[in-house]
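Record passed on here:
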Amino acid sequence: MPAKIDLKDFHWLLDIVQCMDVGVVVLDRQFRVEVWNGFMENHSCLGPDRVNGRNLFELFPEIDQTWLRRKVETVLELGTRAFSLWEQRPYLLRFENYRPITGEEDFMYQNVTFLPLATAGGKSERVCLVIYDVTEVARLKKRLEASCGGNFNR
């Protein structure tokens, strides 16, 4: 059983979520944004005041809606985690690569973890997206594959 958090200590949990070097987004079943952490604000240039309560597809029309809806619905229906790796889909949200000097890539490569969030009654009503910047990993793997003549995975 998880440890109980005293409500008066809840603020430090929020601080952790805000300061993590990964994106944290919580969506309801209608894909409305409920949580948008500092990583997301920094890379999208959209603060929580501009995104909270808004539909993710309205904010980012370039998202493949069919794919994301299917992924999220499966997570909520089964109540299990799911993943998306940059090798399958380079990114969920096209953020610019923020390493202008060492960055050889035009955009941020992302891995995404989809976590079902259950109510007290046990029904999954929200999904948490954890977005990891894996641009350096992608860059190095692509460089290694190029130097091996494309035979790296064989």
